[in-house]
Amino acid sequence: xxxxxxxxxxxxxTCRGLSRTFYGRGGAVEAVRPLDLTFAAxxxxxxxxxxxxxxxxxxxxxxxxxxxxxxxxEIGGETPLxxxxxxxxxxxxxxxSLLPWRTVRGNVALALRxxxxxxxxxxxxxxxxxxxxxxxxxxxxAALSGGMRQRAAIARCxxxxxxxxxxxxxxxxxxxxxxxxxxxxxxxLWEARGTTTLFVTHSxxxxxxxxxxxxxxxxxxxxxxxxVTVDLPRPRRADIALSDAFRALxxxxxAALSAGFAAAERPLAxx
Amino acid sequence: xxxxxxxxxxxSGRLGSVNGILLVFAGWELSARALSGAFxxxxxxxxLAYLAQNPGLMGRALAATLAEAAAGFVxxxxxxxxxxxxxxxxxxxxxxIAALALLVFCLxxxxxxxxxxxxxxxxxxxxxxxxxxxxxYTTFVPLLVGLRAAPAxxxxxxxxxxxxxxxxxxxxxxxAALPYLVAGLQIAxxxxxxxxxxxxxxxxxxxxxxxxxxAMRGLDVPGTWSLATLAAGVSVAAYAGVGWIGRQxxxxxxxxILAAPVSPGGAVGPRRVAGGFAHLALIAVLVLALWTGLMDxxxxxxxxxxxxxxxxxxxxxxxxxxxxxxxxxWALAETMAVTLPGYFAGLALGALIAAAIVLVPxxxxxxxxxxxxxxxxxxxxxxxxxxxxxxxxxLGTITLVAVMIFFPTFVACLHGLRQAPGQVIDxxxxxxxxxxxxxxxxxxxxxxxxxxxxxRMAVPAAILAATVVEWLxxxxxxxxxxxxSASLSDYGMLWxxxxxxxxxxxxxxxxxxxxERAVLAVYASEQFA
Lengths: 271, 529
Ligand SMILES: Nc1ncnc2c1ncn2[C@@H]1O[C@H](COP(=O)(O)OP(=O)(O)OP(=O)(O)O)[C@@H](O)[C@H]1O
Ligand SMILES: [Mg+2]
Fold this sequence. Notes:
The complex is a heterodimer of chains A (271) and B (529). Chain A is built from eight helices and nine strands. The longest helix of chain A has 26 residues, at 244-269. Chain A is α/β, with parallel strands linked by helices. In chain A, the strands form two sheets. In chain A, strands 5-6-7-3-8-9 form a six-stranded mixed β-sheet, with helices on both faces. In chain A, strands 2-1-4 form a three-stranded antiparallel β-sheet, with helices on one face. Chain A has helices at residues 55-63, 80-85, 104-114, 121-130, 146-158, 176-193, 204-210, 244-269; strands at 13-24, 27-39, 44-48, 70-75, 89-92, 164-168, 196-200, 213-217, 224-229. Chain B is built from 22 helices and no strands. By secondary structure, chain B is mainly alpha-helical. In chain B, helix 14 crosses helix 20 (477-487). Chain B has two domains: 43-255, MetI-like fold; 298-529, MetI-like (MetI-like fold). Chain B is globular and about 70 Å long. Chain B has helices spanning 2-11, 13-34, 44-53, 55-89, 94-105, 109-120, 125-147, 152-160, 165-201, 208-217, 221-249, 270-297, 308-317, 321-358, 361-375, 383-390, 394-417, 422-429, 435-474, 477-487, 491-523, 525-528. The chains are: A alpha/beta (271), B mainly alpha (529). Chains A and B meet through helix 2, strand 5 and helix 3 of A and helix 18 and helix 19 of B. The structure holds adenosine-5'-triphosphate and magnesium ion. Magnesium ion is lined by residues 55-56, 94, 168 of chain A.
């Protein structure tokens, strides 16, 4: 059943002059400054940057859930709306946003329904197992911990086999060990299917472990301060974190992060 | 996306309400012209003319009614606040106080009126008391919810500094409760006018209710319509006025009032059921003791102040007890036969139309403000109009009950449909799912708490509406039996009717509350976790 469906070929994602400014009571807040970015088809990109710099906004712009103030997004040559219409993308939100009245199984199956795909109990059960929620398929979100809810949300993202995955801090509330396990298992899943993946994380190690490319953002408004290519071999096992190449990469990302902070703070530090 | 829709909704709200009200008046004028000669419907122009011709009469009546309503509003709301404070400071008493409060709320106002009349004698006592009774519960419930609305972590913060309930109340609860209190007071304003007018229906010297009865008996069509319009107008104005004052005080409207007034108890299973029965018995004993005790305390005349044992004798042990029972229960059955269809029709229409309307945002923009305005019309006071239009048969009563239930349900459901969290709507948007799918899978389930809250509060309202129409016009049912008993000074029957109707209303309310628990345990499990 699952094998019969053709997973969508992973698309290339391009942003041209993309920006977003929020106009509220307290005046205008520029969350994302005009960006030109290209994410290669099938590549996994980690987005790291200080809190509040506009990473979530950028993901929402790419998914078309937020209207850009300027510029546009193309996903494999299509508009985000067209891609959403055929369930070509899935978003893992920072907040797991499960429907509280549905079980884990029901929430994962819901994605298939919304994506107008046939119900596939076997795929649902397999993904729930993969995220380590085997005994909890029949539980409601209220009975799960924060990390378990996030894992259920990840299963919901994957079940429709989207060509583009947009994950916003998918492992935010997951404990360190499970986090490492997911960081190893999940990329395998989307690599095998060929998925273009963008994920936001606050963990530099995780970014380097999972991604082919790490984009480091400055404090708000989001602007790229460093674009790091991670040319480590795959599959990557946990012990790769001990290698010199890995350490060099994490140091480069961390340095870029601090540099971004320093740049933003300069007016304060000036004497 | 939904945010954009909502923003548009609020932006066009003012325009929508103007459009909507113009539509209502245009429809009214047109149907009056179409029906002219049938002596049923006075047009807005006739109403204006009538009001202009009788300014003194109308003004005095309005002043009398408003004074009673204002006094009842203050007394009832102070009582509600006092009760809510007691419950918050002594949580052990909560179940008992909430049950007693509900029982008083379920008293049939039409029968309480004549009893109060003999207690108070001539004057405004009964009208003020009924106005207070009509408001206190609708303030008590949201206030209690509001006093608890703060997140648990805030209380943890207070406790981590070793402070107690009083600090919690002052620092956290009072602020959290303010928008809920405002919402309750806003609904209470028109309810107080309704209570005062029901008091006037059941015997008073002056006021809009007295003139209404006179106009209705004299088949004065323009008079009946003018009085109903005036009552509706001041009610909408009172609702809007309290809302305006509230907005100056508090930051925003509360989320829809969700929780049942009684928090789900600790124990589960058979022990909880046993505890429930024990508690029920305790309440019964308390009610009987209060009932007898108050009468003894005020030394009330046993001829009109019947005690529980009098009612027992009247219905069970007296020689004609079987006859009494047959009369009373037959009348009750007649009342239920019109109340229940109206109740269910009002609920179903309210929920269905609200759900349908969110599929068409422009219509929702016009419907919402009109519905909010019409909800504040005390529908019961328009009973004479419905009787004029639909006659004295069952259809008129059922329609009145349905209309009475429809507006609060409709408004609650429209609010409830917006309760689906933005992040959940984002998930639906990320699959570009249709409006219908979003409605059925996310918004309707999110609406259920608001729907059930409305359904619960609608039980006594439905019975009130039915008994008022029966009292005024149809001559059947328990409302008419109460009117007859009052005029014949048959206080045994009157007290028995009050007791049986209150008990019936409480039972139905409890039934809805039980269904609500079962449904919300699934659909709003976070509230019960
Ligand atoms: N709907 C909105 N209305 C107004 N301002 C917003 C809105 N959404 C985001 N912002 C503002 O845009 C900026 C970026 O927010 P965003 O959520 O994208 O940050 P983030 O990088 O994801 O932060 P975090 O790592 O803490 O999740 C913030 O300053 C925020 O206040
Ligand atoms: Mg974020």
